[in-house]
Predict the 3D structure of the following.
Amino acid sequence: MTRSGRGFALTLIVAASLAGCSTSGASSPQGGGGRILRVAYDREIDVLNVFTSQNLVDISFSMVEGLVTTNERNEYIPVLAKEIPTEANGRVVRGKDGSVRMTWPLQENVRWHDGLTFTSADVCFTWRFVTDPKSMTYNREQYIGIKSCEMPDAHTVVFVWDGAYAYYAGLFEGILPRHVFLKADGKTEMTVDEIVNYEPYNRGPGLVGTGPFRFAEWKTGEYIRVVRNPEYWRGKDFPKIDEIVWAFIPDNNTRLLALKSGRYDWGRIQPTQVSVVRNLPASEVHLIDANSVMHFDLAIRTETGRALFDDVRVRRAIFHAIDREGMAKKLMEGAVKVAEGPINPNSPYHNAKVTTYPYDLARSRRLLDEAGWTMGEDGVRRKNGRRFSFVMLNRAGSTDRILLAQVIQAGLKAVGVEVNFETLESAAWTQRWRSGKWEAIVSAWFLPADPGITGLYACKGANNMAGFCDPALDEILERSDQALSFETRMPLLHEAQAKLAEQARMLPLYQNVMPEVVTKRVSGYRGSGTNFGSFWNLWQWRLDEGWK
């Protein structure tokens, strides 16, 4: 899920029928012939609105486009925008009052699926929606620095910011069609609450985009089907595929069997399943290095959390008791590498020279002794009458994270720390996590190509659920957000990562890898580990003739 500001499991949940094998009665449509791409997808999504969904929005992106996307090289590239504004091309201008004007030229001759023309009015409508506090936009805080949206003409938009904001190029990954959200008079816009809850758009029949595919069908619990947009603005030769069926296959093993059967053309599997599919004659497995780190979080929003974890020596002791190398090499069968920070090691913003926490039980015990936690007769440490015991929150169905939690539990037991588990269904887990009423979790974020971590670790960060606060770190993060050049921003993000590691606020476990199984019938695929996903160039994908 950040996506920046969105927490997401890498475990894919999907449902589909196989020859001789079915999942909860789910079925995959046979389609009406033609070039049909069948996707074994991770879960049934919540809504198709890219701004209010709490899932990754691969399916929506097949129909909905934004000003930008990211490619397989972690680069922002324009889509509905002709060009991304920069100071170098003269489209970013700093005002004497500290404001910043960003001019976005838009593609011309783009039409919505219903035939109406895409214009700057749609972009400004989208801006008004996402910045409204009631919009439920997952990363609204990234937009609120935009104070006005100007429309010099139908194909130009000017955003006026209250100051420099480094991550502007990754915003507006989707654009909403203003005309779809007008009331019966054709002039008055729906309220934000009405847009958020507008069922025809959220569930598909009323979804209108500019993308290469149009909505066709959503069969609850089974699949979403989209069909080729014959009027796609990139030209009559695109897309090359007639139809896509996104089948929901919830079980990891069932999904693996589905992909091995050859009935699906794309699907993600677990890192531990890679060896099983390496030699499939009709498919290839691609190990996509994700902009995502699996990490262990401690929190201090509860009374128990503050009492146990407020001392940095304790947090460091806990981290030294966790065998991350064992997790990577044994539990994940060597498919992943230990991480030492929240930013992808392939990113130029990654700082490799930070405080690390190697597995060292003796050091862990020594730090706990220094912090005044002495061993009790029951094997659990005590201080001032309190046992060192806390609850770790697990999400049902996230088998990989639960296994990691068990490794953590065993390591901490060895140094006198008791860990108990509470397992909740996904929706309840998310609600509890967002409330901050927990002591520890295993989680993961998807970060954008140009990584922003302020929302995760600033005192008032929208996704700082753990509750830690360091005004000095806030100052560094704020300066990094205002730096528009790589040369200025890079050292600030390096400094921020060093501070995070020193403070032991969270322990990176390993760099997430997304194994994607793709049949050899697919060409044009270029897997991406960014928060925008591997379907970023779906309009270019092709299928070999004669496939079934």
Summary: The chain has 15 helices and 23 strands.
